[in-house]
Design brief:
With 378 residues, the chain is an alpha/beta fold. It is built from 14 helices and 13 strands. It folds into two domains: 120 residues, 3-Layer(aba) Sandwich (Rossmann fold), CATH 3.40.50.300; 242 residues, no CATH class. The strands form two sheets. Strands 7-6-8-9-10-11-13-12 form an eight-stranded mixed beta sheet, sandwiched between helices. It has a five-stranded parallel beta sheet with strand order 2-3-4-1-5. Strand 12 and strand 13 form a beta hairpin.
């Protein structure tokens, strides 16, 4: 049975005014969401669904041979065509009075803007994230959280919850990202080295990322290492979080922390939980940005004396709240107390996997399930 996704109402509403682009990681559920807009029984054989990877679709679209009698067109992976923007502009400008158009892709469609004329003003862009606790259930349980931590938020392994199938799925997914999506979108010859890079990343989660260390491990130059990381970000493999600078603390300003869209590949419990929280907060930021138009940012706070708070959520350049992650029920972190006294961040949360819940001043210690509820995270 198809599980409704948190973006569906917003996508339906936006389709009445413009084209809609939905980007997100491979196998996160973009096609399922799109087909659900056609009806509960729609699948990949529906005439309105046109996948650029199917050999019959590219020549038909280039000739503007569109399926008759279909008020909604679903165009999947069309960004792999070098002139996709011009093609879409032509289709939209001639068909917008008769059809709605939804475009999906397993890459950042705002980055792969190859070709001529601009699509500015013609589309809305939404980013689809993996499942989170409150998307799984309005009243999530500890077992829901345990499954999410272990199997990640991608629909297939999350709902199957089979360890062997999860390992196979994870291996196959990353192979397709590197050997198919990377090949189709980027000019990278050293595919095996990029695969090696993806193997190195889980151990780097949650710490300031050293490009120098990656460069030395891969025996490549700094510019190449940075370029490959940016490509993996564009393909929704990983994301990086920049530091938040406050005038009253000697904050670090350059080193970014790295996280994965699939946190289930992170072995250690602490970094995996931190990655889960990072993904949930990034989902919140993208949700507010894509549906309400505010400029949202996810940052972290660290000073030169290595005091650190894991995340700071920003709205229109102003801090909303900070979150520190602890796997156990511990006392308030000294770093949280320190920054709570010296920064303009109005609220600090220290979240954990236990049951303890209390507040003191502008600091609240609470279970992660309760944090998701209090902040109304999507």
């Amino acid at each position: 049975m198809r599980t409704p996704r948190y973006l569906e109402a917003s996508v339906r509403s936006a389709l009445g005014r413009k084209m809609v682009f939905v980007g997100g990681p491979r196998q996160v559920g973009k096609t399922t969401l799109a087909l659900g807009l056609l009806g509960k029984d729609a699948d990949e054989t529906h005439p309105a669904y046109l996948n650029w990877d199917h050999p019959s679709v590219p020549p038909r679209l280039r000739r503007a041979e569109l399926p008759a009698g279909q008020p909604l067109l679903l165009l999947d992976e069309i960004h792999k065509y070098s002139q996709w923007r011009n093609l879409l502009k032509g289709i939209y400008d001639t068909e917008k009075s008769r059809r709605q158009i939804l475009v999906t892709g397993s890459a950042r469609l705002d980055c792969y803007r190859k070709g001529g004329d601009s699509l500015a003003g013609r589309y809305r862009y939404f980013r689809l994230h993996p499942f989170s606790l409150r998307e799984m259930s309005r009243k999530p349980s500890p077992s829901d959280l345990a499954g999410l931590l272990k199997f990640g938020g991608f629909p297939e392994p999350l709902f199957l919850q089979n360890e062997s199938e999860h390992r196979i799925w994870r291996r196959d997914r990353m192979s397709r990202v590197v050997r198919e999506d990377l090949r189709d979108l980027e000019h990278v010859r050293e595919i095996s080295l990029v695969e090696h890079l993806t193997d190195l990343l889980p151990a780097r989660v949650g710490s300031p990322l050293s490009i120098r260390s990656l460069r030395e491990d891969l025996q490549i130059d700094h510019k190449t290492a940075e370029r490959w990381l940016q490509i993996l970000e564009n393909l929704y493999v990983c994301f990086r979080v920049s530091p938040y600078g406050s005038p009253k603390v000697r904050a670090v300003k350059k080193e970014r922390k790295l996280y994965l869209w699939d946190w289930s590949s992170v072995e250690d419990a602490g970094p995996r939980f931190e990655n889960l929280v990072a993904s949930q907060l990034l989902k919140y930021c993208h949700w507010i940005e894509d549906t309400e138009g505010y400029a949202m940012e996810l940052r972290y706070l660290r000073d030169v004396d290595k005091r650190e708070v894991d995340f700071v959520v920003m709205k229109d350049r102003k801090p909303l709240f900070a979150v520190e992650c602890k796997t156990g029920e511990k006392a308030i972190s000294p770093a949280v107390r320190y920054f709570a006294e010296r920064t303009p961040i109005p609220r600090f949360y220290q979240t954990h996997l236990g049951e303890k819940h209390f507040s003191t001043g502008n600091i609240t210690v609470l279970p992660f399930i309760r944090l998701c509820h209090e902040l109304e995270l999507p």
